[in-house]
Amino acid sequence: MSIAPLERSAGRSPDQSTDQSTGRSAREDQAFRALDVVMDPELDEPVTDLGFVRSVDVAQTDAGVRVSVHLRLPTSFCSPNFAYLMASDAKDALTSLPWVDTVVVELDDHHDSDLINAGLAADAGYRGTFRHEAERDLDELRATFRRKAHTAAMERCLTDWLRADRDRAEADAGRVRLRDLPASDHTDSLLRRREALGLSLGADDLVLVDAEGRSYAEGEVPMALRRARSTRISVDGNAHFCRGLLRTRYEGSGADQTQRSDGAEPGDHHHLIPLTVKETHR
Amino acid sequence: MYSKDGEKYYICDAHIALWDARPENQRNVHGKQFIDCFYDYHRNLSPESELWTYEEYLYQGGDRLMKDLFTDGYVDHAIFQPAYLGEFYERGFGQEEEAAALAQAHPDKLTYNHHFDPRNGEAGLDALRAAAEKYDLKGVKLYTAEWHGDSRGYKLSDPETYRYFEVCRELGIRNIHVHKGPTIRPLDRDAFDVADVDHAATDFTDLNFVVEHVGLPRLEDFCWIATQEPNVYGGLAVAMPFIHTRPRYFAQIIGELLYWIGEDRIFFSSDYALWTPKWLVESFVDFQIPEDMTEYAPLTTAQKKKILGLNAAKVYGLDVPAELQLPDADETTTGPRGADDVAERAQDTNALAGV
């Protein structure tokens, strides 16, 4: 069965008015926007920008208003812990909507779909879902990727700063303060990442710091910047590769993705020979 | 051998497979999911002219392999790195007997590496000893995310794995190729974590650890470990095809590798049959770091020769014709080694700009 993006069950929605461009009713749109807070931890982007939300459906049932969401990922073998994390965050975000009575979140076409979907339906939690494969909760994993997001944002700002004046050397990057950064998306992003880590946002604060806010000795600065650069390259590279794979896997899914400028290349939207859609909807 | 602009390149494809993913060999839905995932990689990263049909992709056979690598693909020598995947495929994914027979028929062109799984205990050690004798093994390929009953992965630092490394040492199996996949217990940690490579490489300094696809998607973690361990190498499987659709990303991968681990420890791989070597070799010889990426020094012809084959030839003891060799390279060391080159390039750029 081929699937149109964001399909919905016609005629059962409590709100009949639909947005022509998305095909979603007002409430379906609210539900979709509620998922903006659900992040792919590794790519540091909302699932709604990545095209991971396959469908949103709002229906009136005997048990009240039910929201059903299907999620999809770039491959069957995407990391199951990230898959679970996004799916359970999605369920939490939808449950918090005041007009919602029941929430069904299902992950499609993943090697662990059955396990994860059963765990979500039973509200089994992460450890209840993965049993012997889980030792602790996912807090440490989330923290790791919050740190990486900060590292990448910091490197983008410092590389912009270095490129703005060719007389600046890598070793000088250790003296750059927040007030030295121009107003830009990269600066805004860095401030948000600092806030998420609990770092201060003072104008005199150094930019090049670790996740605890510690700065580097002068001799350590080039190496710290280089390490941050390799982290940024990984994050940007993964973000575009995952987006590309999703477009390859699900025909038409590119329409559900927003542009990402960091790491973008002209070949990101190269032509692919159309192919029968291999995936089937569960 | 590939030649261009008067330069000749010895080509060693350090990661190839002879797989069978046809439906009759698929054990369950995961067998289909696995090959579909590979096929999406292929469709996403290949030039249009190099795209295969899904049916071609399921199975190639020995004749096609020989043609793609040696007749069309410029390859002088290639190394099988089989993935077993017994939980997904009835007769395994990589075809042991077919590949080993091909290598025995063409010992000058092919090396057969085997695989082991430390969760197979004593029986697995006996099987490894038997395979080493039968195939004269120089290397193994490990897939740490391999499923095995209730377990969906192991670590190189597990005591059971160390027992296997000790046996590798006894048997003269020096080259340990490692592929990281997503599922490893416990799931609470980063499943692509390469920290276990660090432990194993420190404790087995006489073995070479080749981390396939250079640790992607965790390039930074791989670089940090590899810069400190002289016996850790980077295999370019899966990283190579980015040269076509995402050349700037590819430039950064190569730039980082040269900076952190240097030109002597990087291996070219097509990852056949994910991709074919012909277009990758041609593209890599023509490739250059974009000029605006001043943080990286330009790639030299000698670096390309080492990466395309001379590095792997050295580790595997392959015979390289005299006209394709370079003067002996410096011994591998630790720590980042790109800093001097970049400083020189910055000076050159300043000189050109009249600074």
From TrEMBL, chain A:
Residues 262-271 have a biased composition (Basic and acidic residues). It comes from Terracoccus luteus. It comes from the Bacteria. This is Metal-sulfur cluster biosynthetic enzyme. Residues 14-24 have a biased composition (Polar residues). InterPro entries: FSCA_dom_sf (IPR034904), MIP18-like (IPR002744). Residues 28-103 form the MIP18 family-like domain. Pfam families: FeS_assembly_P. Residues 1-29, 252-282 are annotated as: Disordered.
TrEMBL record, chain B:
Pfam families: Amidohydro_2. It comes from the Bacteria. InterPro entries: Amidohydro-rel, Metal_Hydrolase. Residues 12-318 form the Amidohydrolase-related domain. GO terms for molecular function: hydrolase activity. Coiled coil: none annotated. This is Amidohydrolase-related domain-containing protein. It comes from Terracoccus luteus.
